[in-house]
Design goal:
single chain; 522 residues; alpha+beta; Beta-Lactamase; Helix Hairpins; six-stranded antiparallel sheet; five-stranded mixed sheet; 17 strands; binds adenosine-5'-diphosphate
């Protein structure tokens, strides 16, 4: 009988050992440990409570008891643990255990509680209840304790694995949902991980890219500096300071799988193994198309703005120099004409500078200041057309506002700037002439004003960008015509500051219509 018992104990110890080595699923480990304990102690009911991060014990596995009782058990456990922590008292403990026995509602007589301790750290508590009073010899207690120690190792391993698995899934989610492209390479430069953003950027599906050599997927059409393989061949990463190995940045035009090109910057960060060798390379791929465009626009802008500023200055200087010639005796008419040109060009210069200032203020996120008052848009449009009409004989100007067009609240100077800009563009971008119509419509809650021309028009892609700061369509015409690419940016900002919106419809070669709305207050 005694031998039988010993054999059983040994078998159960073996079972627990197996749980340690074979099982990493915490729930399963707890279930096995608990089952073995209950059977070994010939109990009827058992439970395992684990200590959570806040130090509280919670029931995590049960045998032979109604799970609805778990919350009540948790409460008693909390009291039980705090009574142990306050100073062990047999009576206090017994009182709580009795309440637990009563709660379980069975003719249970005895309990065996084994603390689960790993490396001096309490992990939890294993309790088995029996329906009879059995005697426990010191030998039994020792075996039970080694049993509990083994179980603690199993629980500890499973908890560790659970934490690692959680961390791994958290990192995978971060990588997967990162807005930048992320891939992880092995030491042989094969792709191990390839996230969604990178699928979008390269046109490669993760399932095709994973396992492929990185050079098959990252194909450069044009590149600044070394690529990854070159860098590795020339000693990157430097192992001198292996705590923070340096990253490698490669920038250029990538050839996507569908043949299209994408401007990217890739930062490669090495992950070193304990021996200092590269174990993995983590690559962060950023789409730099917008940055490149902004850079290009900035460059074009600087050259256009210099040109735009130089032209009126050259004209003013030319006229002033001519009028100032000591050897000439100009008649009053020539002097007046010359001064008129100087005045006009000074106005143009002032206008240009004003536009630049407004644009830079808007860029600094400062709201546009408006001097609000009653504005008659139909009259404003008529006056604008009168100003443009003498400058061109190739265009026919048409004004098309309904009678009694409503008065709006707005900043007259700014709105004149909008209309002037749209009409000026209509003239500039219809070099062969044609009809330019400026009109208005009254709609519920707002008015719409439009300027239509029959000029060169724009592609869809150009229409999407015309309101960007410094943007000028890349056509021979816009290269030949004066402009800074600020006009429509400012026009839209003015309209939006009034609570309205601006849009364009156009077809290449067929003309364009720019419209804006302004809210009606009453
Ligand atoms: P700018 O005329 O000084 O270049 P804008 O901001 O007024 O700057 O216009 C931006 C670009 O939009 C122009 O360079 C031109 O390519 C295009 N654009 C504007 N208006 C028209 C139009 N009516 N027809 C065709 N293209 C236009």
């Amino acid at each position: 009988m005694l031998l039988d018992y010993r054999v059983r104990q040994r078998d159960f110890l073996l079972e627990i050992s197996r749980a340690i080595t074979a099982q990493l699923d915490l729930g399963e480990v707890l279930r096995r440990v608990l089952n073995a304990s209950v059977v070994m102690l010939a109990g009827q009911v058992g439970m395992v409570a684990l200590r959570d991060a806040s130090g509280e014990y919670k029931v995590r596995a049960t045998v032979g008891l109604d799970t609805a009782k778990i919350p009540a058990l948790n409460t008693i456990l909390r009291e039980l643990i705090s009574s142990v922590e306050e100073g062990y008292s047999r009576e206090a403990l017994d009182a709580r255990m009795k309440r637990m026995l009563a709660l379980l509602g069975r003719p249970l007589q005895q309990y065996v509680a084994l603390p689960l301790v790993f490396a001096g750290e309490p992990l939890g508590l294993l309790i088995v209840f029996r329906s009879y009073q059995g005697a426990a010899t010191p030998d039994d207690i020792q075996i039970l304790q080694s049993f509990a120690d083994q179980a603690a190792i199993a629980v500890h391993n499973a908890q560790l694995y659970e934490r690692i698995d959680h961390e791994r899934r958290r990192l995978a989610a971060i990588v997967q949902h990162s807005a930048d492209g992320v891939m992880i390479l092995d030491a042989g430069l094969r792709i191990l991980i390839f996230n969604r953003a990178l699928e979008r950027m390269t046109g490669w599906r993760a399932q095709d890219a994973i396992g492929a050599p990185v050079d098959d997927v990252i194909v450069w059409k044009r590149r600044d500096g070394m690529d990854l393989a070159d860098a590795l061949a020339s000693g990157w990463p430097a192992t001198r300071d292996s705590d923070t190995p340096e990253t490698l940045y490669v920038e250029g035009d990538l050839e996507r799988r569908d043949g299209l090109t994408l401007a990217v910057g890739i930062t490669y960060a090495p992950l070193l193994a304990a021996n200092g060798q590269v174990a993995n390379i983590i690559a962060n791929v950023r789409d730099i198309t917008h940055w490149r465009q902004a850079q290009e626009m900035q460059n074009v802008f600087i050259s256009t703005i210099s040109h735009e500023l130089k032209t009126p200055v050259a004209i003013i200087k030319g006229y002033a120099g001519t009028l100032n010639r000591q050897d000439a005796d100009w008649n009053p008419e020539v002097i007046r004409d010359g001064l008129q040109v100087i005045e006009d060009e000074s106005d143009r210069l002032a206008g240009l500078i004003e536009n630049l200032l407004t644009a830079s203020k808007l860029q600094a996120q400062r709201d546009m200041e408006l001097q609000l008052g009653d504005v008659r848009l139909d009259e404003l449009a008529a006056r604008s057309l009168e100003r443009f009409a003498p400058q061109t004989s190739r265009h026919e100007f048409v004004l098309n506002f309904p009678e009694e067009f409503p008065i709006v609240q707005g900043d007259e100077t700014r709105l004149r700037q909008v209309l002037d800009n749209l009409i000026n563009n209509a003239v500039k971008y219809s070099p062969d002439g044609g009809r330019i119509e400026v009109g208005g419509r009254v709609e519920p809650g707002h008015v719409t004003v439009y300027v239509t021309d029959q000029g060169v028009g724009m592609t869809e892609a150009e229409q999407e960008r015309v309101f960007e700061r410094f943007y000028r369509a890349d056509s021979t015409l816009s290269r030949k015509t004066q402009g800074t690419g600020l006009g429509l940016y400012l026009a839209r900002a003015i309209v939006e500051a009034h609570g309205g919106s601006m849009s364009v419809t156009s077809r290449p070669g067929q003309g364009s219509t720019f419209s804006f709305t302004l809210p009606l207050t009453s």
